Amino acid sequence: MKVVVVKPERCVGCLQCRFACSVAHSISGSPYAAPYEAVLSKPRIHIGLTKDKDAFPNKCRHCDPAPCEMACLPKAIFREPSSGMVLINPDRCINCGMCAMACPFGVVRYHVYSSNKTAAHKCDQCIARQKEGRVPACVEVCKVGALLFDDYNKVMDRATDEISSLVYLGIRSKEQEKGPYQSLTAYKHRLEELRRKQA
Amino acid sequence: MSEYEKLSICKDAQLTLRKAREDGVETVWDRFKKQEPQCGYCELGVSCRICVMGPCRIDPFGEGPQYGVCGADADIIVARNLARMIAAGAASHSDHGRDLVEVLHKIGEGAAPGYTIRDADKLKRVAAEYGIDTAGLGNEGIAKLLAEAMMEDYGMKKEQITLINRAPKQRIELWKKLKVIPRGIDRETSETMHRTHMGVDNEYVSILLHAVRNSLSDGYGGSMIGTELSDIIFGTPKPGFSEVNLGVLKEDYVNILVHGHSPVVSEMIGVAVDDKEMIELSKSRGAKGINLAGLCCTGNEIMMRKKIPMAGNHLMTELTMVTGVVESMIVDYQCIMPSLGQVAQCYHTKMYTTSDKAKFPFMEHVEFTPVNAREQAFRIVKESVENFSRRNKDKVYVPTAPVRNMTGFSVEAIVGALGGSLTPLIDAIKAGKIKGAVGVVGCNNPKIKQDSGHVELIKRLIANDILVLTTGCVNVAAGKAGLQVPEAKEMAGPGLKEVCGLLNIPPSLHLGSCVDNSRIIVIACALANAIGVDIDKLPLAGAAPEWYSEKAATIAFYAMASGIFTVLGVMPPIMGSKKVAELATSGLNDVFGACFAVEPDPVKAAQLITNHIMEKRKGLGLDV
Fold it and tell me: What is the CATH number of domain B74-234?
């Protein structure tokens, strides 16, 4: 089963994934029209920040077993059998907050849906786009490779190969030796250090 | 439908795109695909890179930040970004105009060998508009004084730029009331940059009103000066025939392409390729002669005046080299893709830059000034001829035969064709034979299937008896589709067909390059003055179906501010502010008597424009 794999070390914090997520889940599906809809579509992916200001794209992991599903008394949260995705039926949701408390990743929010009902709200792995043979919107829009859509085992196989070469080269991480973004991260770390010192 | 047919309606583009793929050449379409999906914040105009407290963006879905670090909301950010876009467009046209003022000044000083005054009557007419007493002065003397007066238009000595007086008095009164009369060409651009610096103008209407003033400093300033001086120095265009599409490149000739915008360079290359010695040299190298062709707006300039054929418009520029028969491409500035030098590496094409303000990777710099232009032009043409023997015969592929295109419709030429005044045109409009006129202008953009927006719109407009005026990249699109020959009258409605038949002109007239949009403005002003109404009352409209550049945004703004309803085929980055979007698409109507519409579908755009023209006809009490 394909999932969205997050490579946090590659995230530059552009927030494109949040934008694309909102558009993909809007009624119009258009970036020009979506901000004009009566109920604004809210993003289902969140960018967390470490104390060093490193960004982490955080979204529903579609756990199995899913703690949110187990905690949901009205059975609004369910596993869609064909795709294996954990989905929400907003009509059954009673806004009790149990799923949010149970979620180990903190990715559940409560928002108004286009039906005007407020309910639990989270990533559906773009199940509608997947049916059209398209990858999730957040993955498509990510230009730095921080979000991938792939089978976890395949990703890990690739990671194993990568790690093998790196071990032989004696380098801990490829990301550390290349790219202008690395120097920006280093700069941000220094800035944060300075801020802590001054405080 | 092949994958190439999805990208362009042009046969020559489709066939060379296939070859580009085989030759391993990356094109603008490949790069566009890699950029998709493009940044949503930037598409909406709600990202701001003006200062380094940022970069900032506003979340249009309301969950994230609603203010930049400085406190600017979506309205301020969108208005500032749009104003800067317009300033960049105005700066480009106006700097181009400035180069012609410099050449005119050097002619006046006798220091521009190879350049001369080709239209002395127009020199005197324009000098009179500047209040210059020409009595007892020769052409050089007038040239120097006119150039100096125009330099003042660029500065801060005047209260208003001179050629703004061409507008109808009602329009000038309106502009005065709104405080949008441009005072100096450079001043307005400079002030836009000042106003949009952090902490200056933060009221979106105020920012946008200044953007209007900045656009007018281009339309009635830099661009208009560019057009008028090009006519004075290189001759006012007269109607005649030329050819378009990649078929204008000839397999057995040395092919030289000029690309960019300034006739200062291309005109001189034109002189060098006609030189007997150069032609003899080409024959000694096994070619039948030298073939010069144009690209983009400098191509429009020499097509209008010298009937030099055009190889293509914006999205064709990379593909010209894929034919394998281009010995050299000489560029000046604007709209020259930085990828061109890279493409040339795959073939034998030599690339030359000519302006100290426009240098590119993989190109050789041969700087042109009014003083050395002749000498440099001969040097480049000689090297190009010598490059003929390096051509790889296995890579040669000229895909199509060229198509005829009528060109040369300057305002003077149109008035001439009408028998000396605009009255016959006004009579035809009053009688309903011609319902109105539309300027179809602008660029190509890989977001829209190449030339499909232009061609479909023009076909529908002329079928509705609406006369079309084209400039820039639209000329090539319309020309390739066979819309700019007198026989195209068969595609026009009965009234327009009759008028075209009487005058032996096409229903879609080529008016020139993108600075020559000022010609459309001059016609609009003259029509309004002749009828005695403001421009916004006339059955006119503008359209930029495939625009991409900042210059096009500026043109759209000065057209709108002149009272001309304008339909854009590509969404400008303004939708992130509901207030700015509302202002652009309807609010402006109450202020300038014209506004914008965005419609990528040319069929619907034609309907919008036709409806608008019929409304305006009703307003004037004319039959619809």
Answer: 1.20.1270.30
